[in-house]
Known about the structure:
single chain; alpha+beta; seven-stranded antiparallel sheet; 10 strands; 16% helix; globular
Amino acid sequence: MLCIEKSNAQQAAYRLPTPLKWGVEKLSFPIDFAPNIPFNGNEELRFAPGWGNSKSSEYWAYVFLWFIHGKPWLHQDTLNSYLTQYYNGLYLSNLKNKTNAPANFTKANVRPINRLLNDAETYEGQITTLNFLTGQPITFNIRIHVRNYPQVNRTAILFEVAPQDYHQPVWIMMNNIVTGFSVKDDKYY
């Protein structure tokens, strides 16, 4: 998929691959369910075909991109805070009876690791939250890729998320999406 984003100064185009049968969703910042995450730009998601099937080896496996303006100062604490806000809001926005939601149910714990190819920073960790499909606790493994694109004044934050172990096949598919991500600084991408 190609996305062209217009700004006053210049245009930025990016490509986030969509494997066969994977779902797609796109949102703008501020994100409705996490309005305090202080970015301008957009979020784009790729859902594995078995994302919603609890019997699938792809259950809850997905990649999401925050393609944002500027170069925000990111580190372990800010990412943990943003992810906590994000997953709290995601659960609450999908909960039919919002009065029964517990307080402080998400815990994000990411830490920097050795940078991977094309990343300015790379993080891994876990997020424990509530599964809005079942209402039960769920723990996700997460890998975060931070990439800076000063030529278009953008930052890409790519998140790979799945409850499966990093060595499971679905991570290969998610890695392929991240590896295939690219940015071009003109509209003829």
